């Protein structure tokens, strides 16, 4: 799983000419280098497991927690239900999903991990600050309105 995560971070951190020299995720590489990315497997009782895990993160400085479903037994719809439930339970966090059956693209560039269903957790304040910084650049100009709406609606209050 660690190799998969590192590979994914490397790919989304690459600057791309089709994105005006920007990367898919401009903050991913630094977060990994600063050891502010955590990860875990999820399989059953996903909401309970993630809830307990995130409660242990209260005293940690982190940018992202990645929960991999290596069994690949979570459907896209189940992931949507999970993140909806978790976003209601944890208002200081934003939960998002990456699912092979519902891939995300920015300018025809695949944004996902390509292997497993994934639930992502990020501190709301940090994610909103990053989004604000990016909104002052041309970063979101490369996103389709549909993709922008999907991503920005996760965790909407």
What does this entry look like structurally?
By secondary structure, this protein is of the alpha+beta class. 41% of the residues lie in helices and 17% in strands. It is built from six helices and six strands; from the N terminus they run ααβαβαββββαα. The strands form two sheets. It has a four-stranded mixed beta sheet with strand order 1-2-6-3. β1, α3 and β2 (64-68) form a beta-alpha-beta unit. α3 (46-56) crosses α4 (76-89). The longest helix is centred in the middle third of the chain and has 14 residues, at 76-89. The N and C termini lie far apart (32 Å). The model has no long low-confidence stretch (mean pLDDT 93).
Taking all residues together, what is the mean pLDDT?
93
Beta strands, count: 6
Q: Which series of helices and strands comes N to C?
A: HHEHEHEEEEHH
User: How are the strands of the largest sheet arranged?
Assistant: 1-2-6-3
Residue runs with pLDDT of under 50 for 5 or more positions: none
Number of helices: 6
User: N-to-C terminal Cα separation, in Å?
Assistant: 32 Å
Helix content: 40-55%
**Whole-number radius of gyration?**
15 Å
Structural class: alpha+beta
Keywords:
157 residues, alpha+beta, four-stranded mixed β-sheet, two-stranded antiparallel sheet, 6 helices
């Amino acid at each position: 799983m660690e190799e998969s995560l590192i590979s994914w971070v490397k790919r989304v951190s690459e600057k791309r000419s089709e994105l005006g020299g920007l990367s898919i995720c401009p903050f991913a590489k630094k977060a990994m280098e600063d050891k502010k990315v955590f990860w875990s497997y999820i399989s059953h009782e996903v909401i309970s497991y993630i809830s307990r895990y995130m409660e242990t993160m209260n005293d940690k400085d982190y940018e992202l927690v990645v929960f991999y479903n290596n069994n690949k037994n979570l459907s896209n719809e189940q992931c949507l239900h999970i993140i909806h439930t978790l976003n209601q339970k944890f208002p200081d966090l934003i939960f998002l999903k990456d699912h092979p059956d519902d891939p995300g693209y920015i300018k025809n560039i695949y944004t996902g991990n390509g292997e497993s269903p994934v639930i992502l957790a990020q501190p709301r304040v940090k994610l909103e600050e990053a989004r604000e910084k990016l909104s002052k650049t041309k970063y979101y100009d490369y996103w389709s309105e549909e993709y922008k709406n999907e991503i920005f609606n996760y965790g909407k209050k």
